[in-house]
Amino acid sequence: MKLSDLRPAEGSVHSRKRIGRGIGSGHGKTATRGTKGDKARGSTKPGFEGGQTPLHRRLPQKRGFNNIFKKQWAIVNLDNLAKIEAEIITPDVLLEKGLIKDVKSGVRVLGRGEIDKAITVHAHYFSKSAEEKIKAQGGAVEVI
């Protein structure tokens, strides 16, 4: 078999429809477009729905805006920190233990739950209650 022997499958290739070439072609006069209207004349605007209120006007407008500079925090509560055996807790330790997936703009320690041992926590932000509870157990907080 040679490359020149290759042919498309029987019946898979059709000859081109020659429209608008006179009445004898079978595709003359209206050239397969039907009669009248914008679709026959080819002047419909994108998004035009035949006089019906278009989709872009039916949907409510999106209000407000998204602040692209807004900080996203990785949040950790004290009850989660109590589960960690390490004495010094840093964002790297939190990532390693799976308590946070990503540091994002920084780690925030919040005061939900209790802590029962003295630990040193390195984070970007502490709530007042979290800071008080950590210091009450003899621990230390360090803002990064």
Task: Provide the descriptors you would attach to this structure in a database record.
single chain; 144 residues; alpha/beta; Ribosomal Protein L15, Chain: K, domain 2; 2 domains; three-stranded parallel beta sheet
Characterization of this structure:
The chain is of the alpha/beta class and 144 residues long. The chain folds into 2 domains: 17-49, no CATH class; 74-143, Ribosomal Protein L15, Chain: K, domain 2, CATH 3.100.10.10. 19% of the residues lie in helices and 14% in strands. It has 5 helices and 6 strands; from the N terminus they run ααβαβαβββαβ. The strands form 2 sheets. Strands 1-3-5 form a 3-stranded parallel beta sheet. Strands 2-4-6 form a 3-stranded parallel beta sheet. The longest helix has 9 residues, at 128-136. The radius of gyration is 35 Å and the shape is elongated. The N and C termini lie far apart (74 Å). The model has no long low-confidence stretch (mean pLDDT 89).
